[in-house]
Design a protein that fits this description.
This protein is of the alpha+beta class and 264 residues long. Helix content is 25%, strand content 33%. It contains five helices and 18 strands. The strands form five sheets. It has a five-stranded mixed barrel. It has a four-stranded mixed sheet with strand order 9-10-15-16, with no helix packed on it. A hairpin with a 2-residue loop joins strand 6 and strand 7. Helix 4 runs parallel beside helix 5.
C-alpha cells in the first residue's frame, strides 16, 4: 500500500513539474483543442518597447494583426511614440486568440483601451501594416479595410511614392511555390531602383543595390542560397519568404514610400 502511495505521489509531482515547465505550451495546446481562445485580462502598461510591443508587469505583450517598422526603418520612432501616447501608464484589456504566447514567450493579444482597438488604430493611421503569419482570422477583413482607408488618406506608411518610376513598376507574378517575384517596367524609360525594397507582412526584406530595370524589362527575385549572386537577383539567407497560408508584398522606393502592395 505504501509503495502504491509513493508511486501516486511521484506521479502527481511529475505532472505538476510538467505543467510548470510547459505552461505556455499547455496553454496553446488547450486553446487549439477547444478553439475558443483564452478570453481576456486587464493590466497597466508600464513600458513601450516598440510600435507593436509593450510590457505589463514583467511580461511582454506583442500586438496581434500588426507589424510596425523595425529599428532603423522609416517610421520606427513615430510608431513607437504613437503607441506610447495611446497606452503608456493606462489600463488596457488584452483579448487573446488561439495562441496565447509566441516563441519568445510574449503574450499575443488584441489590445483595447475604452473599447478602442489599439491594433486597428496603428494600421488605420499608417504606423503598421496588417500581419497574420498563422493565417487569416476573423479579424483579418477589418484590418485589411482600415489599411485600404489608410491608403486612400495617404498616411505615413501608406503614403504613395512620388518617384517617377512609381507608376512604371508593376507586379507581374508572385509564385509562392517557386518563391519568386517578377516585376515589370511598363514605361519606355529605364528605372533606377537603388535602395528600393520588397517586404512581406513580417520582417523579411529584400533591398535592391545599384540596379536598373530597363524600359519594358522584367526582373525576377527568388529566394535561394549558395549561387552566383553576380548573375542572378537573389533573396539570400532565407528558407522561404512567401507563406502558403497567405501573405502580402509591399514594394517601397528608396525613401520608404509605397509603390505597390499585393495580398493573397
Amino acid at each position: 500500500m505504501n509503495k502504491k502511495r509513493k508511486q501516486i505521489s511521484l506521479l502527481i509531482f511529475l505532472i505538476i513539474l510538467f505543467v510548470i515547465i510547459n505552461y505556455s505550451f499547455l496553454d496553446n495546446f488547450l486553446v487549439n483543442l477547444f478553439g475558443d481562445g483564452f478570453g481576456s485580462e486587464t493590466g497597466i502598461v508600464g513600458r513601450v518597447i516598440d510600435g507593436d510591443t509593450f510590457v505589463i508587469g514583467n511580461e511582454s505583450v506583442r500586438l496581434l494583426g500588426v507589424n510596425t517598422p523595425e529599428k532603423g526603418e522609416y517610421y520606427y520612432s513615430e510608431a513607437r511614440k504613437y503607441l506610447e501616447n495611446l497606452v503608456l501608464n493606462k489600463s488596457v484589456e488584452l483579448k487573446f486568440g488561439k495562441e496565447k504566447y509566441d516563441r519568445y514567450n510574449r503574450k499575443l493579444a488584441y489590445t483595447y483601451l475604452n473599447e478602442m482597438n489599439i491594433n486597428l488604430q496603428l494600421v488605420e493611421n499608417g504606423y503598421a501594416n496588417f500581419y497574420f503569419p498563422s493565417g487569416k482570422d476573423k479579424y483579418y477583413q477589418e484590418f485589411f479595410d482600415v489599411w485600404k482607408k489608410c491608403i486612400n488618406e495617404n498616411l505615413n506608411l501608406c503614403e504613395k511614392s512620388k518617384d517617377e518610376c512609381a507608376d512604371c513598376i508593376v507586379l507581374k507574378d508572385l509564385n509562392v511555390k517557386e518563391q519568386k517575384v517578377v516585376l515589370h517596367n511598363k514605361c519606355d524609360f529605364d528605372c533606377f531602383l537603388k535602395n528600393w525594397s520588397i517586404k512581406d507582412e513580417g520582417r523579411k526584406k529584400f533591398i535592391f543595390g545599384n540596379f536598373i530595370l530597363k524600359k519594358f524589362g522584367e526582373v525576377e527575385i527568388k529566394v535561394e542560397d549558395g549561387i552566383d549572386t553576380k548573375t542572378k537577383i537573389v533573396w539570400e539567407n532565407e528558407d522561404y519568404v512567401w507563406t502558403s497560408s497567405g501573405d502580402s508584398l509591399f514594394l517601397r522606393d528608396g525613401k520608404g514610400k509605397l509603390v505597390l502592395y499585393y495580398t493573397y
